[in-house]
What does this fold into?
Amino acid sequence: MKSNKHQETTFCKICRGIARLFDIVDFNKIVCDIPYPRGLAGIPVYYYRCESCRHLFTIDFDAWSADDFAKQIYNEDYIFVDPEYLEKRPHDSAIYFGPKLNGISDSNLKILDYGSGLGLLAKYLAEEYQIYNVDSFDPYGIPSPSTEGKNMEHLYDFIMAIEVFEHWVEPVVEMAKLNNLLGDNGFIYVSTQLQPTNITRLGCAGWSYASPRNGHINLYSKDSLALLARYFSLRLESVGSEHFMFPKTRNASKTTTAFNRLVSGVLWRNCVIAEDILTHINAIEFNGSWHGNEPADTKGIQWFRWTGSDHSSILIRIAQGTRPLTLIIRVFIEILPEFLEKTTWKLNGELVKPLTSHQDNFIELNFGVMEIDRQPEINLDFVTPQVQSPVSIRGAFDDRNLGLAIGVELR
Ligand SMILES: [Zn+2]
It folds into this structure.
């Protein structure tokens, strides 16, 4: 960092839109409750935030060489600023992925840990879960015997990028390299923290993840992460607050089992809008054929899912002793006009007509209050007109069969 002079605006690293100066922190700030345990470096790091996609980033490392990073960030002190990096994170990841991948690991699925550090995730998966088909690759680390000299182009079905995206200097360039390793029907798992909803109030100073000493250069919004995926014809699906899937297509049988296993159990959480209600729900099952979670980022709907067949249902299991709940369905998009109007609904077997109200960004269907004590399960069954693909309707890129894009809310 030779100069501290910064233009008021720069171009966004993701969408190339206008980004404005957002906040300044000292270079020594680390991801910790105590941001400066070793005091300040006296070097200000400027972060910009995009007006369009709300991506948050610094350009202060743009001119750094790999050697600069090795000396000033990923040096012998890095273990102090990120103590989980060496062993705990790979081990936690093995505990997360191991049981899900176990049993399908012998199906010729090619798996890559991208940004693997010392390659411990592959080691733990092999030792503790007998999963042997995981290669390790770290573009900035020590070459791994599993990938050294190997032609990795379009080789992998499943690539894990755990705490990688925030470290990139140029996300689009790096994403191109990563995507180049992905096979035709593959998918990428990404873990990175999205900006909190109150980021404008917190600033970088009040958000621990915005820490230059950890090498956190790019801090994504839901929009900027989705856009980065879309550049490479990938979709963004959330599988938890900091966990994302970037699938290409899920038509291939080889990767479908793995994908479904990896997203099961957590996917539905994002489809329920009211967070506080999660404690009242034991499980939500989306039965029939549903597409994955997609970000809406519209007032009133955070995430939605498309129905993928004419007959779908949502089964909600309620915890015992819960107060009465109101079931709300928010329809974000219908694939064709009058699609929703022609849909018929059955609630626990009874034909019902929900109360419909048109809001700015969605249509809300209110199915009324459920007496939970008598019925610990809510089953909403519905039949739509025939699902259609945007490519067949208007030549759009999307070739999935779609019906209604909906979010579920209970209150
Ligand atoms: Zn942008």
Notes: DSSP finds nine helices and 22 strands in the chain.
